[in-house]
Design brief:
The protein is mainly alpha-helical and about 375 residues long. It contains 12 helices and 7 strands.
Length: about 375
């Protein structure tokens, strides 16, 4: 056990360094080209450690001197999770190679040891960047680091189950995952089309920031990392639930209530007014409900099993959308932006209702139509 912990600690530190070195280089270059007269070289290093926490979805509590800037940073880029995943995968593979080919029980122990060492080391490394202005409670930081490291190493370890689908809920989970992925993918295409359509506004927002050459590269990387958040917000929009950009704001196909938007280029994709025609996307979601029902009829001859599959699929779709919508929303640093992103509670509810309506339509409308036609036939 001591050897496992020793190797896990060494590889956990290696994975953390793999993340921090390029981040520190980028922040140092951006700081050097910004030409600040009041900062010092410790500022970009602290920023690199903050980004390390943000990449793991660790929320930051801010207490800045400017009251309008105080608040929290919980609107975190989901795309940044790829960075720790790649570093953790490399470290865990080296750990497995060093300790030898384990059995299933040993691999679980490897995952636990690596995640524990990574969480503790990552939080201790980040402590110099935390203090009076930026805080991460000890009951928040290490648990989240542990979850990210544990999930990443678990995926890398090959412990994911690969057994045959035996129960309706298993098939329902797989179908729900495919449906959610497809909906987010379609929403991402809509975001890309909107960015092209509102390209002039995107350019204007970029010019307002005036990031410079290296700052512009950094800004571009940040926008790329936020693309999953924007795609999930677009899904909330087309479902009819809408999105929020600050308190008392709501942008949906039927409501456009917002005073101003932050100078963030990606927000140039936002509609400038109501667009009721985009509400027709709800029909697309309902049609997916039709496809789910047809799929269940083809795979289950027993009505009870088919019903269980439908219930499981709709429940998992609602749960997955609740998770991703909550992860893609939050507060953006200032109390002026307490809520940014999808309406996390309404989006999964509406998507589940629209899928259910499609399933009910294909299940009962043909029978209703048959009865109506039979009633019209003279006796």
């Amino acid at each position: 056990m001591a050897q496992i912990l020793r190797v896990a600690l060494a590889q956990a530190l290696r994975s953390i360094i793999l993340i921090l070195l390029p981040v520190a280089f980028i922040t140092l270059v951006a700081w050097a080209t910004a030409g600040s007269s009041s900062g010092n070289t410790a500022d970009p290093l602290r920023a690199g450690l903050w980004f390390f926490l943000i990449a793991h979805q660790v929320p930051l509590q801010l207490s800045l001197s400017d009251a309008t800037s105080s608040g929290a940073l919980t609107y975190l880029p989901l795309g940044a999770l790829l960075i720790p995943f790649l570093a953790i995968r490399s470290g865990f593979r080296r750990m497995s190679e060093t300790l030898g080919a384990p059995n299933t029980r040993q691999r679980r122990l490897y995952v636990l040891a690596f995640a524990l060492c990574y969480a503790i080391s990552g939080y201790l490394v980040s402590l110099p960047a935390l203090g009076g202005t930026v805080q991460v409670p000890v009951y928040v930081g290490p648990p989240i680091l542990f979850l990210v490291a544990g999930a990443s190493s678990f995926i890398t370890s090959g412990l994911l189950p690969r057994h045959e689908i035996q129960f309706p809920w298993q098939r329902g989970l797989r179908v729900a995952w495919l449906i959610t992925s497809a909906l987010v993918g379609v929403s991402a295409l809509l975001v890309a089309a909107s960015l092209i359509w509102h390209f002039d506004l995107v350019v204007n927002l970029t010019e307002v920031v005036a990031p410079g050459i290296f700052g512009g590269v950094t800004l571009l990387l940040v926008q790329i990392l936020y693309l999953p958040n924007v795609a999930i917000a677009a899904l909330s929009y087309i479902s009819g639930a809408g999105i929020a950009i600050g308190g008392d704001s709501l942008i949906s196909p039927y409501v456009h209530r917002i005073d101003e938007i932050p100078a963030i280029p990606l927000l140039g994709a936002l509609p400038t007014t109501t667009a009721p025609y985009l509400g027709s996307a709800a029909l697309m979601i309902a049609f997916i409900g039709v496809l789910i029902t047809r799929y269940s009829d083809r795979n289950y001859s027993d009505p009870t099993e088919a019903r269980r599959f439908l219930i499981a699929t709709l429940s998992f779709v609602a749960l997955l959308n609740l998770v991703i919508a909550r992860a893609a929303s939050g507060q953006l640093m200032s109390e002026n932006l307490p809520s940014v992103g999808p309406i996390f509670w309404a989006a999964p509810l509406l998507i589940a209702i629209q899928l259910s309506l499609g399933a009910l339509a294909i299940r009962f409308l043909p029978e209703l139509w048959r009865r109506i036609r039979s009633a019209r036939v003279p006796t």
